[in-house]
């Protein structure tokens, strides 16, 4: 038997984040704060700003922060990557990173660091695993109430946790889940559509 790199996007994400944590610790946090976090008041004339819009998901405040996020990502991420494909999974992660960074900067004066938004995206997306056309999964409703409800409540308290990023990540996961539902509906409709089927069933998240 040999080890299988079964979820390349999720595993690479985890390994890169661990590598960033090592570099950050070895430079007293300078690497993490300088390149793997967003800062308030983004300078759009700096190329580093555009890198940070995506790289902030690789940075973490400490090992406990990283372990907390990736214990969930490594649990459900491979299942999602197998279901939706590596390319689609990568696009979902990058889109969530971008939208959380932009909106956090627009509405708040605090920076952003960590993969918590990705965690919540995956949690909400996983509730669509057994989605049926014309139905809203009860698991989705329960997860929204438990996870996002808790984050909305926690946002009323002052701490160092970005509940806004968690909520946005959950919203992104919900959008992706419903988008996949619509894609399935299109595929079902076009099954007998002859030559148009291949054109109309293209994955909306694919490059």
Characterise the protein shown here.
This protein has 207 residues and is mainly α. It has one domain: Rhomboid-like (Rhomboid-like fold), CATH 1.20.1540. Helices cover 67% and strands 0% of the residues. It is built from nine helices and no strands. Helix 3 crosses helix 5 (86-107) and helix 6 (116-126) runs parallel beside helix 8 (163-189).
Briefly summarize what is shown:
With 207 residues, this protein is mainly α.
According to CATH, the fold-level topology is: Rhomboid-like fold
Summing up helix and strand content along with how strands pair, one would put the structural category as: mainly alpha
Instruction: Give the low-confidence spans.
Output: 194-207
Distance between the termini: 35 Å
Order of helices and strands: HHHHHHHHH
Number of domains: 1
Query: Sheet with the most strands?
Result: none
Mean pLDDT: 82
Secondary structure elements and their pairing?
Blueprint: H1 8-26, H2 30-35, H3 47-55, H4 63-84, H5 86-107, H6 116-126, H7 138-154, H8 163-189, H9 196-200
List keywords for this structure.
single chain, mainly alpha, 9 helices
């Amino acid at each position: 038997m040999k080890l299988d790199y079964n979820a390349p996007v999720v595993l690479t994400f985890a390994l890169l984040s661990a590598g960033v944590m090592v570099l950050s610790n070895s430079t007293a946090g300078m690497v993490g704060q300088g390149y793997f976090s967003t800062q308030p008041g983004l300078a759009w004339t700096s190329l580093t700003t555009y890198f940070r819009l995506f790289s902030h998901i690789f940075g973490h405040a400490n090992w406990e922060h990283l372990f907390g996020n990736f214990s969930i990502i490594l649990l459900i991420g491979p299942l999602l990557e197998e279901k939706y494909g590596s390319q689609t999974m990568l696009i979902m992660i990058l889109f969530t990173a971008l939208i959380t960074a932009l909106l956090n900067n627009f509405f708040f004066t605090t920076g952003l660091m960590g993969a918590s938004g990705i965690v919540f995206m995956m949690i909400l997306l996983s509730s669509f695993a057994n989605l049926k056309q014309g139905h809203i999964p009860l698991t989705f409703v329960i997860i929204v109430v438990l996870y996002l409800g808790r984050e909305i409540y926690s946002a009323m308290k002052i701490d160092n946790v970005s509940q806004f990023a968690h909520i946005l990540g959950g919203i992104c996961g919900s959008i992706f889940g419903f988008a996949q539902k619509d894609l399935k509906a299109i595929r079902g409709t076009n099954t007998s559509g002859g030559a148009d089927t291949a054109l109309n069933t293209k994955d909306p998240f694919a490059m």
